[in-house]
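Help needed: design a sequence for this.
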């Protein structure tokens, strides 16, 4: 098949779960023998960094990125608010990107165009105008659900009113455009059910995030669990909210029982409000240069997400590296994990803290959970198998 992949940010470097998921799609399709061209949006938040694209990748994907200003503009936000349009979506709609897309579609023929997230939906019309390709929405999340959760956690006031309006417009856009595509590829079973409830009538195929585990040796053995950590992009609001909950609600309960417990907070764009505090055993280390190396340390991974949808790519990455994990239900949604076998799952601060304490105090249990979780993840989320199933679905569409 000939595939055009449209991305709302550069897939490389792998700065967050979305980047990892898009790059896994590209590499999986290439490895399966298909041609893939990648056209991405480069933003202020996610700039194009050519030094992270090796020559083989550039040649294989004909990679190109178009600069688009997506930073918050209050005047534009107000204009879209008054017009009843989704500002979340329109920020990614660019004349420059449309022109580049038109040029590619006039010169080349594709069987499938994959829109990586709802933010690329505005380009569906341009694709239909110049191509007979099947247009597939790869839904990383049910986008409006994330913002609904964040809005509910916001205190009453002008900000909550504004977020409520934005979320309402995003939900309207998402529902209105659901059946504009030829198919939807949700990243989790839960999201597929939500899309059906919202009125989706088109074909759907659940295709979770996968990894090439053959290139990542299994690491599960450790002498002792000596710290707790959170690793994630800290410019994503659900992560900020979750870490705040971890620090304020969970961690004090851990320290009450274990004065030597240490919590590392890692991730790019760490908010200044999160500071190291030796008296609380909190160390903020910010962005890590080598994620794989960081995940080989003897720590307990936490996923304290309170809002969101889709699946947590970092959960797959961390557990596949053999890290014992404590998460909320939302944090491991879509993974199909068994509580107490593959990971510990808790939704209250008390339960979350108790699971952390248990793992800190029992190296045998931590090792057992780590090995079981790693084996499960590596079997279920092999990118080769996931892509093979997806290709069968796409060929039926074509």
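Sure. Designed sequence:
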């Amino acid at each position: 098949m000939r595939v055009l992949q449209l991305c709302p940010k550069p897939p490389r470097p792998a700065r967050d779960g979305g980047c990892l998921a898009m790059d896994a799609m590209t590499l999986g399709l290439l490895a399966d023998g298909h041609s893939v061209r990648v056209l991405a949006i480069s933003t202020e938040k996610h700039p194009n960094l050519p030094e992270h694209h090796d020559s083989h990748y550039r040649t294989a994907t004909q990679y190109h990125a178009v600069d688009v200003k997506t930073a918050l503009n209050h005047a534009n936000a107000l204009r879209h608010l008054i017009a009843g349009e989704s500002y979340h979506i329109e920020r990614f709609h660019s004349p420059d990107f449309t022109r580049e897309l038109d040029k590619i579609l006039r010169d080349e023929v594709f069987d499938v165009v994959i829109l990586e997230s709802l933010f690329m939906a505005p380009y569906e019309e341009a694709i239909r105008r110049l191509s007979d390709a099947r247009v597939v929405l790869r839904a990383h999340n049910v986008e409006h659900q994330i913002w609904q959760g964040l809005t509910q956690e916001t205190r009453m006031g002008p900000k909550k009113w504004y977020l409520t309006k934005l979320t309402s417009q995003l939900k309207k856009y998402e529902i209105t455009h659901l059946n504009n595509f030829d198919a939807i590829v949700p990243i989790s079973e839960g999201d597929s059910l939500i899309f059906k409830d919202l009125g989706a009538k088109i074909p759907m195929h659940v295709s979770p995030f996968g990894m090439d585990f053959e290139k990542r040796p299994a690491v599960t053995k450790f002498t002792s669990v000596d710290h707790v950590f959170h690793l994630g992009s800290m410019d994503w609001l659900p992560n900020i909210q979750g870490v705040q909950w971890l620090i304020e609600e969970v961690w004090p309960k851990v320290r009450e029982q274990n004065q030597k417990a240490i919590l590392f907070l890692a991730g790019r764009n760490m908010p200044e409000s999160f500071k190291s505090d030796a008296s609380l055993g909190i160390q903020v280390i910010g962005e890590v240069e080598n994620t794989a190396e960081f995940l080989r340390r003897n720590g307990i991974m936490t996923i304290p997400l309170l809002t969101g949808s889709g699946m947590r790519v970092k959960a797959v990455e961390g557990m596949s590296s053999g890290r014992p994990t404590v998460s909320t239900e939302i944090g491991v949604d879509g993974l199909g994990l068994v509580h107490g076998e593959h990971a510990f799952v808790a939704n209250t601060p008390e339960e979350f803290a108790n699971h952390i304490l248990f793992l800190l105090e029992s190296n045998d249990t931590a090792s057992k959970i780590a090995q079981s979780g790693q084996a499960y993840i590596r079997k279920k989320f092999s990118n080769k198998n996931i892509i093979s199933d997806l290709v069968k679905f796409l060929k039926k569409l074509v």
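The chain is about 45% helix and 15% strand.
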